[in-house]
Amino acid sequence: MKLYGLTGGIGAGKSAAAEILRSRGIMVTDTDNIARQLVEPGQPALVEIVARFGNGVLQGDHLDRRSMARVAFADETARKDLEAILHPRIREAWQTETARWREEGFPAGVVVIPLLFETAAENYFDAVICLACSAETQKQRLYQRGWSETDIAQRIASQWPLEKKMNKSDFVVWNEGDLITLAEQLDRIIPQTKPADYFLDETESSL
User: Domains of the chain, with CATH numbers?
Assistant: First the structure.
């Protein structure tokens, strides 16, 4: 099996790329989804988070992701403490899943990891793909999510500069256009396990 890591800047279209790849029959796991599962009520990671940050990051018995983000991205020590709780568990989860893919004989798989290089995960993969877009497009997409200028600045500052990620990647996918264009670029990189299905309306956004 050829295993790809998929990373890139915030708002570059990683989720859209993952959806396209799944539609092509490629096995995909997204570490953001893994992180959400790890902080479900009763999970050990959530217990550790509350012990470190207090009940103020909860809404009922669930993690209030917005409150947690405000705390973590406003203070580097807090962010590193949160990462120390989550990152080892996230890595264990995706490594377990990709090992299963290998055992089951899948020809290709993709792990979406926003902080792939920041967590030194690149050596686990046969190749790394970086999703990228212009700074202006990135801001517009993040504004559409309801993020403030402060939110955007804090999130960008918490990651490597995009140029550095691009330089260390094996492939760069420039995602300024529609989903059809994004799909065509991905099709040139990753062998499909079923015929291309351009089910996406080419007028759709690539967010």
Answer: 2-33+91-189 (3.40.50.300)
